[in-house]
Write a structure and sequence with these properties.
The protein has 62 residues and is of the alpha/beta class. The chain has one helix and three strands.
Length: 62
Amino acid sequence: MQELEVGPDEVLYIGDSLTDDYEGATRSGIDFCYYNRRGAVLSDHHRPDYTIRDLLEIKDLA
């Protein structure tokens, strides 16, 4: 983010791992979009800002 000169409010992290991607994004103050292609049930511990099942859904997040 420093190199691109953007803040956390200008970034959306998209990932498929609640262990690695979600934790890293939330600890960095970045909104997280969970790519849940298998339809996994989320625990109360994980609350992504967005959830998609198909990558084409990204364009509808704006």
